[in-house]
Amino acid sequence: MVLTAESRIKEGKEDTNVGPPNIPRHPEVLARWDPAKARRPDIAEAPVFYPSLEEFEDTVAYIEKIRPSAEPYGICRIVPPLKWSPPFRLREKSIWEGIKFPTRVQDVELLQNRGPVKQKQKKKPKARKRKRSSSSKRQPSSVSSPEEEKVFGFNSGPDFTLEEFEKYARRFKESYFEMKEGNAGDTKWSPSIEEIEGEYWRIVEHAAADDDVEVYYGADLENKVLGSGFERGETSGWDLNNLRRLSGSLLSFERGDISGVLVPWVYHVEDHHLYSINYNHFGEPKVWYGVPGTHATSLEKAMRKHLPDLFEETPDLLHGLVTQFSPSILKEEGVPVYRAVQRAGEYVLTFPRAYHAGFNSGFNCAEAVNVATVDWLSHGQNAVELLSDENKKTSVSHDKLLLGAAYEAVRSLSGDGGESGKSLEWRCFCDKNMTLTKAVETRLRMEEARIDALGGGFRLMKMEKYFDSNCERECAKCSYDLHLTASGCSKCSPGEYACTKHANELCSCEGNDRFVLLRHTVDELRSLVRALEGEPEHLKTWASMVREVFSEAQKREPRGFDLNLEYQVDGEFDDTSETRHDEAEDLKTWAKEPRDFDLNLEYQVDDEFDNTSDARHDAYMLNFAASVETINLGFLVFRDLWCNKHAIYPKGFKSRVKFYNVKDPMRMSYYISEVVDVGLLGPFFTVTLEEAHQDESFSAGSAQACWEMVLQKVNEEIKKRQERNIHTLESINGLQMFGFLSPSIIQAIEALDPNHRLVEYWNLRKQGGSLEV
């Protein structure tokens, strides 16, 4: 999830004055508005939709409903019902005044009119854009030095708090547009959106040689910096944190951490031609321009025609997000462009492969994510083929999303998915010639043709189930994702793989050394198509296969707590009450030994646990060792607060553990624990329930406080339900639940600091002190 807090700040060349202490930079604004030379484009408006409260309840269904009407425009505006007014958490004083975020500086006059940086530079391969553990700012690969970045119009700016940023933006606007007080009691005059728009395009299209017009903006900010603007615990699908997990959202099948981004406002399409949805939390309006996906090629041709030198130097200029282009010129070239003005509290939806651009009329805070619905699959397939042709990296595994959707459809159609309504939803995309069925069939034919073209020089082998579970597998020649098929050679290139398009380019070995790995055989995929079409025998076969897939996935999950077991021990269980009592006592003793850390959970003894005593109705405390899975170890920050005598807290650390579900304590669920950076305040700790349709998050200044919030919520739910078979839980160890008391995790984190620079932590270790809390 990415927060975008953008402010368009134009200023004169003089930028050396020091302003008030709470504003990082306070330059004298020399430039002035020139209304006589305004260049506002004359283009049609994008459609606006006003969902009812009932329509607003299902986000994905509403997007699907308006798609036929809105997609021909490329973008549309969605105005929520009046009752939709989510709190904006970034207004909290500790965030608004206390957390700084980095900005970038963009020279607006260089967005369209600039010369090449250097001639015919040999391109370097792009860094991988897959954003599963962290988000990278999207920059052109040819921009490497500060001098070159300056030519493109992008430089690093100062850090701001939101309070400082708002004051800075307001001061600029007042100076630049010469906003003066009216008569006594009158409201201060402010330029209209149309006047600001005319001035913006004057600068972009016809700025004088001595004009120096800069933009400060804070975009591409991960939620680790400021966090989402939506309040934690909001369950609506229009809370962008929940959108990925909704039924019908294909990104729910990609377990990794994929950031959804809407970055600098030059013409671009989203990665993989995904949808994007942007919410303007508060502030000044955002002005958008969109080109329908059906005219994407026409836009690219027009830009190449008018900017030939730049495209000769940087062929993938449009991927670099460094070039703005006048809607008026596009209109002259026959490319349809549509405009939308997004005010606070409104959404803007962009459609697959729709180029979009824009600017902000003042200070605002907006948030955006990508969306993948079933109808996107054909666009996504085209996108990955284009990326392969251009040897560009992928952000998500398209085949994983495709198969995930197919598996879920099979589960629903066969009755394994539970709700009958869900089955009806998936049936709309299945059957013969329907969207999902066609997408799977297209992919089948594509891969079948590529395998046939290889001839008989390759052995066909079954791919291991976990081939790409713990690492990314991609073609060594074109970076194509290898979730479905992969080719290799056991003789000359073990561990290196290629897609079936480039299998013959990997090596020229002969004999039985070369192979193709298949997640599903061609015959199995043909059967999957028949299953999606509803043929009973094939559906039955695939329902069984999918059950096995889900069963295997569950087996690979880390062990956690089982609400229905008193404790877990290896070996056979002795059925006598004395042995049970002894084992329980032994477990208590074992759990208290050094380096095995306690998590105290109270439970109600089962009636059959001890048939010879009155213990059957007593509540006991047992000590469990939490099973924590490390997702991301993170990296060390050598500043105050990033360690203490108990633990080291790496920035970006992320772990996964099982605990009682805060919504239903009779079930166990997985939680994601994470350490994020909040600037001067040091590390911030978050815990999020990892479960579809339940977006429960807890944040605090310590791991202990974070998990105590979880525990409190669990206990509240237990009391509310008045469950007889479970008592409330007395205590929890936050460090343990994060994994900071796990010996293997401690060892891995300590290895990040071989020189013992985190003195507070290491001093205690050298003294032989205990890390128990």
Short description:
One of its GO terms (molecular function) is histone H3K4 demethylase activity. By secondary structure, the protein is α+β, with helices and mostly antiparallel strands.
Can you describe this structure?
- Residues 235-388 form the JmjC domain.
- Its main location: nucleus.
- Residues 46-87 form the JmjN domain.
- By secondary structure, this protein is of the alpha+beta class.
- Among the domains are: 44-87 and 231-372, Sandwich (Jelly Rolls), CATH 2.60.120; 389-554, no CATH class; 628-769, 2-Layer Sandwich (Double Stranded RNA Binding Domain), CATH 3.30.160.360.
- The chain contains 21 helices and 24 strands.
- The strands form five sheets. It has a nine-stranded mixed β-sheet with strand order 3-4-11-8-13-1-7-5-6. A five-stranded antiparallel β-sheet has the order 20-21-22-23-24. A four-stranded mixed β-sheet has the order 2-10-9-12, covered by helices on one side.
- The longest helix is centred in the C-terminal third of the chain and has 20 residues, at 536-555.
- Residues 1-24, 119-149, 257-265, 556-625 and 769-773 have low confidence and may be disordered.
Q: What top-tier CATH class of the domain at 44-87 and 231-372 fits best?
A: Mainly Beta
Q: CATH architecture of the domain at 44-87 and 231-372, please? A: Sandwich
Distance between the termini: 33 Å
The class by helix and strand makeup works out as alpha+beta
CATH H level of the domain at 44-87 and 231-372: which superfamily? Cupin
- The CATH topology of the domain at 44-87 and 231-372 turns out to be Jelly Rolls
| Total number of helices | 21
Helix-residue proportion: 25-40%
What best-fitting shape do the alpha-carbon axes yield? globular
Mean pLDDT: 75
Q: Give the biggest sheet.
A: 9 strands, mixed
Low-confidence stretches: 1-24, 119-149, 257-265, 556-625, 769-773
What is the oligomer described by this structure? single chain
Proportion of residues in β-strands: 15-25%
Number of strands: 24
Please tell me how large the radius of gyration is: 29 Å
